[in-house]
Amino acid sequence: MPEYVAGDLGPLIEMVQLARTGLLPPPSSAPWLRLNGTETVLRAAGGGSEGWPSPHGSGSGFFRCDVLQTEAARWTSFKLEAHKAALAAGFPSQAVSRLMGAMGEIADNVLEHSNAAATGFVVFSGRPGSFEFAIADDGIGALASLRSNPEYAHLTDEGDALQCALTDGESRFGKAAQRGTGFSTLFRSLVNMNASLRFRSGDHALSMQGTSPTLVNAHVARKPRASGFMVSVHCAIREPNDVPGAI
Length: 247
Description:
Layout: E1 4-5, H1 9-20, E2 33-34, H2 39-46, E3 51-53, E4 60-64, H3 67-70, H4 72-89, H5 93-113, E5 121-127, E6 130-137, H6 141-147, H7 158-165, H8 182-189, E7 194-201, E8 204-211, E9 219-222, E10 229-236
Parallel strand pairs: 1-2
Antiparallel strand pairs: 3-4, 4-5, 5-6, 6-10, 7-8, 7-10, 8-9
Helix pairs in contact: 4-5, 5-8
């Protein structure tokens, strides 16, 4: 049987989401999966851990979303560790600060929109030249969240719901509430950075990549139904000869 080597966090967390729906075995027990140093993250995502920052100086961390409601100091400590991991990976301070702001905004979305904050978690990992984070939950997903407001009753497709949820000002609170800015914060944080983003909800995935990714260059595709909502963001250091906007 071919072996899959877990390197990036995004695909690994997507496996966790698919395992939650029963489409895959738990990644920790899959004989075809070599975890390659991601065991600690996986155990935390699949278990009851509340959080840990950078165990043994690994440059990675895990935090459960509902804990950030009650333990602000621990959440701040976690974000500081993520900040240090991104700096150590080689990203400039200003870019890192923007990324941390976006990560916090998306974690807040789990509390506001998932209806299952206790199932949500944030993970990050930094290594030379790259930094990534992923946020996932086992909640109601983008379509059900939006349709809880009659303003979005016309939505019937998970792919359309994903695109709507990622649009500035769109959220279950309605346009008049002037909420729904978390993902636009994320897109702004990635200006002039090489980035790959993937969003997963229900039976669709939306992905984009390149420098300064936006919904204009997004690709939406039908996929096996996954649990809840997931976003993964992978950033790489731009090389001097990188072509702006290349995908």
